[in-house]
Input
Amino acid sequence: MSTLSDALAAFRMCAKVEGMSPKSIDGRAKCVGYFASFLGCDPELSKIGANDLRRFILALQESQKYQKHPYKPHYREKISPTSIATYTREIKAFFSYLARKELIDRNPMEGVKVPKAPKKVVRTLDEKEVGKLLSQPDKYFNRGFRDYTLILTFYDTGARLSRVG
Output
């Protein structure tokens, strides 16, 4: 395997065989695909280095949201630090995976730090809001009781609906 696209194809196959979730595989492949587009060709793996990733991070930090998206309007906002950190983490994980599977001799991204993203503080519900939320389902019917128990489960565990299933 000599090129980035060959490595990406091998990663997809190995990750699928090993049971990685399809969303995780697609997410990592998408980030690596953006990185490959930034590099402008299908480079040989041996020619990709840490400075390529650093240049990619700088380009992301200077880019605007949806800059090349065919259906979204052009925004004046910059790409969020959280998104940039995600791209960096996924690309680093991809190269770590290749090194672990001995598909490359060494991980060229080891020395690259993930840019810090600001921590978000999630607002919690006060007692009155929790009471209002729990009073919504009609617990005397099966569907209402089911909804009530689901709300309690989500609230007690901190689970997010987007992560269920």
About this structure: The chain has a mean pLDDT of 87. DSSP finds six helices and no strands in the chain. Residues 4-100 form a domain with the DNA polymerase; domain 1 fold (CATH 1.10.150.130).
